[in-house]
Amino acid sequence: MTRDVAGIGLGLRYDLATELLERTPKSIAWLEIHPENYLDRGGRYQEMLELAREDWPIITHGLSSCLGSVEPFDARYLKELGTFLKDLEIPWHSEHLCLGGADGRFFHDLLPLPFTEEAAAIASQRLIEMRDAIGIPLALENASYYAPQGPDGLAEADFVVEVLERTDAKLLLDVNNVYVNGRNFDFDPRLYIDKIPMERVVQLHVAGHFVRDDEVRIDTHGEPVPDEVYELLDYTLRKTGPVPVLLERDNNIPPLDELLSEVDELWTIYRRATGVGNAP
Ligand SMILES: [Fe+2]
């Protein structure tokens, strides 16, 4: 059985957990966790998760099973992951549409795929394999990237849609990633959003990013959400309706009250764009 998830969520990060779990702010509707932090691990992480589950529904977001990689999956890991996810009663699990390693090495980074039919076919087959193994609905997340594509590929949005169509998968649409890629590679983020089949979108991510002196935008999750990303979120929510929205903050983590004021801003946008959502 799964629990309903809607409204604004926050990532359960170690640096914030003690204060978050003591205060249990009502404006946070759900929490996102990375399963890699909890599998085969007891102690404080396990305790944090058990406390969190008393107050919030949980959604999981993986960091290591990059859907575009060509390395075979570790079957034992997928089995353990599936058991962990079912115990959490989550509605879906998500992973990035990217490359995570090659030749037996894992890069601990989310590397871009070429936006080609071949890469779409490989990622689709891998997504279906993972979904079958964990036995839970699987969403792909669009990633940020910094390497220019070759001349023969698809536009990024068309590549994402191609994988969605081949797999019947769900989509975790990262609005900040669309914005960052649009600014770095000179496309209109709204036209990207317009291409997405909204019935596939189950969740949104928003975050802040770093702007270098040369205007290149880096997806750091280490800055407050800028106005342009709030505006693109508003545009997206008007199309998706009230899907859950996560505020991603993984670096440069500020005091909880600062994040809660961003959560309040997100609620304002959420209610305005979707017409639903209880006031925190
Ligand atoms: Fe994201």
How would you characterize this protein structure?
With 280 residues, the chain is of the alpha/beta class. It has a domain at 60-248: Divalent-metal-dependent TIM barrel enzymes (TIM Barrel, Alpha-Beta Barrel). It contains nine helices and twelve strands. Helix 3 (75-88) links the parallel strand 3 and strand 4.
Ordered list of secondary-structure elements with their pairings:
Elements lengths: L7 E4 L2 H10 L6 E4 L9 H13 L2 E4 L13 H14 L4 E4 L2 E4 L2 E7 L5 H18 L3 E4 L14 H12 L2 E5 H11 L3 H7 L5 E7 L2 E2 L5 E2 L8 H14 L4 E4 L7 H19 L6
Parallel strand pairs: 1-2, 1-12, 2-3, 3-4, 4-7, 7-8, 8-9, 9-12
Antiparallel strand pairs: 5-6, 10-11
Helix pairs in contact: 1-2, 4-5, 8-9
The site of fe (ii) ion has 4 residues, from loops.
Summarize the structure.
The protein has nine helices and twelve strands. It is α/β, with parallel strands linked by helices.
Name given to the CATH architecture of the domain at 60-248: Alpha-Beta Barrel
Mean pLDDT: 93
**Strand residues, percent:** 15-25%
Count up the helices.
9
Q: In CATH's first tier, which class of the domain at 60-248 applies? A: Alpha Beta
Shape: globular
Largest sheet: 8 strands, parallel, barrel
Roughly how many Å is the radius of gyration? 18 Å
User: Any ligands, ions or cofactors bound here, and which?
Assistant: fe (ii) ion
Strand order of the largest sheet: 1-2-3-4-7-8-9-12
